[in-house]
Each structure stands twice: as structure tokens, then as C-alpha cells.
Amino acid sequence: MRSKRISNNAKHNKRKNTMPDHLYSLFLTKSKILEYKKAGKRIIGTLCNGVPEEIIHSLGAMPTRLLGLSKTTENADLKLPRWLCAYARRILEDGLRGYLNYLDGVVGITSDDTKMRLYSTYTFYVKNNFSYIIQMSYVRSENSLKFFSMELERFAHKLSNHLLCNFNLDRLKESIKIYNKFRLLCKEVCGLRVIDTPKICGADWMKIMLGSVSTLKEDFNKIVEDELASLKDSEGVKDYKLRVHISGADFYDVELLQLIESLGAIIVSDDLCTATGYFSGFVNEGEEPFEDLAERYLSCSACTFTAHPNVSLIKDRIGFIKKEVERSKADAIIILRDKGCEIYGWQCSSIMEELQDFPVLLLDIDTPISLEQYKTRIEAFIESYGD
Question: Per-domain residue ranges for the chain?
């Protein structure tokens, strides 16, 4: 294990960049979304990373990945089984409480059983003007690529009919370019996490990614471009005991990440669907945009939607994690396992087996999150394996 500077607490930059907090405020308040809404733009919520936002964007609407702000789910628990993942229950809770009244429509995808159940329950109890669930294949093959490409085209025309606008291939190509620029900027910012003196901590990285789902990507790109030089020139996090990779699914509670880093760790990489897994993978900018989108969205390895014939879904996920751990020079892994996520639940044992040379801490997550129940275990883990 490499030597690291020791401190009782992980410290943020002395000249702290304000971009993460600004973007996080957009997520918490939805101020930008409401601004777009007031200007006449339609707002379409998506229930999974597998929904190609570029299609929605090309039709003049704003796509936003739905992530519930409700800390408790007493209403949702009456509509969905209590053992389903907190991610699904929190979105439904927000809908039932009226927090998502700004939405003009909801789009899901058949990526897993829980998200399909969430889509059907949400659209039944929370009425929106538009709803659509995209059908996807679970096998990566030439036939599945063709099927998914045709399904995305059907979705585009269905949404365009609802929005009373004509679908245009050139506009879709332009949206793909905007999203690829978004991915390139995220990759550049993410690269500032992996250096010996990280310019950005894990909690601030999550704030940035949460802000990215709360504003149009062209506006997000402008914000990041304006602040990137300042972020690169910042002093960075010098004092930490342990470089940590965070593994999980749809996790986005900043407070737990802040707790981990306050106890002496620095989060240098992740495979979360809400962070690195959200932007990873570019779309080819070719002449067949639906095929290009289908290829990208069927091959995202951070979220294991699909696999090649006769290959386990977990292989790609483990490969993605190994690549991120190696790239970030992480010394340990903290797994955030949603108690209700069956997919990630069965993946955990395989991930831990494949990464048995690394110290691993497994935390079972549910809502509401009680930080105190995790503090002692995290602190002991960092003290045991940190320098």
C-alpha cells in the first residue's frame, strides 16, 4: 500500500471552488428546472440511466433523471413493497407528495424488475400527460442492436407526437454532440480525483453529478467550462489516510460520502449509476444516430443491463470496477448495498470475491439513512487500512 499523508480529518481545498455547491443547490431546489418550465419548456423525467436523454433533448424538452428527495417513504410504502430499493420508493414518495408536479411526462425502460414496477406504479398513482416505457434487449447481439435502434426511433416519434413537434435527425445529431461534450467535461473533472493530491473530493463530485441532472446539458457544460481552470488551480486535498473506491447502484446521499471523508478517507473513484456510471461511454457521431445511441446504451458496463451471449452480466461490471480502481490507485473499497436492490445484492458476493486482494467494507443502505450507525465501522475500517 502506498504511503499517504496522515490527518485526523480529510480537508477540502483552502480555496474551495464554489461550483459543486452551486450545482448541488440546483438539484435540491430544482430552480433551473422551474426556470425552464416557466419559459415554456417541457420537462420529462427519466427513471433510469438507460433512457437516451439525447432523444428528449433533441425534441426541445428537458430530460431530468429522477432522484427522490424524500427522506422517508411512508406514502410510497403503501403502494410499493417495503423491501424494494430505496431509490424506487423515494421517487414514488416525491410523486405522491406533489414534489414532481413540474413534470410533463415520465419515461422508463425495462432495465430491471424494480424499475419496471416503479414505472407502472408511478404512472398509475401519479398522473402525467405523457408516459412511455422503452423496451430493451438483455443480450448484446446484432439482432438486439437492430431491435433497440428501432425501439428508440418509435419512442422518438411517440414523444414528438405528444410534444406536437417534428422529429429531426440533424437536431438529434446536435444533441448527441452536446451530450458527448458533457461526458468529455465530466471525464476531465473526474480525472482530477485520481491524482495524488485530488482537486475534488468524493462528496463534491457527487454534488456536481446531481447538478448535471438538474439543468440542460449545454448550461451545465458552460458552468463547468467557466470553473474548470479554477478547479485545476486549487490546492486540492493533501491530508488523507486512505484512498477509497465507492461501489453501488443508485446511491446519491451526499451526507454519507461527507462522513466517510470527514473520518480521513478520500473518495477517488466510483461505479455508481448516479455518478461515474451516469456519464461513462460516448456515443458515436455517425450518420445513423439511432444505431449509435443503441450501441452506447446497450454497452454501458457500469450499469449491467445487458451482456454478450453466454457471458454473465457481472463480468462487465467487475471489469469496469477494476479499471476504475486501477486508474484511481484506490487502496480500499466501500460497497454501498441498497437492501432492496436484488441485482446489486447478488452481484456483491462476486465483486468481493474478484476483489479479495483489496480491503472491502460492506454497508447495507436503506432510507432514512442514519449516519451514526455507520460511523464506528467506517472509522475502524479507515484506521485499520489507512496510513
Answer: 19-385
Band (pLDDT 50/70/90 cuts) for residue 17 is confident
| pTM for this prediction | 0.92
Distances (CA, A) of 131 to 37, 103, 134, 162, 215: 18, 11, 10, 10, 21
Distance between CA atoms of residues 16 and 43, nearest Å: 33
Strands 242-248 and 62-65: unpaired
Name the class of domain 19-385: alpha beta
Q: Looking at this protein, which amino acid is placed at residue 374?
A: Y
What is the average pLDDT score of the chain? 90
What are 172's three cell numbers?
438529434
The answer to whether the beta carbons of residues 54 and 182 sit under 8 Å apart is no
Residue 313 CA: distances (Å) to CA of 140, 154, 253, 274, 295: 11, 27, 26, 19, 16
Residue-wise pLDDT tens digits, 289-316? 999 999 999 887 656 566 666 666 778 8
Among 219, 237, 248, CA closest to 339: 248
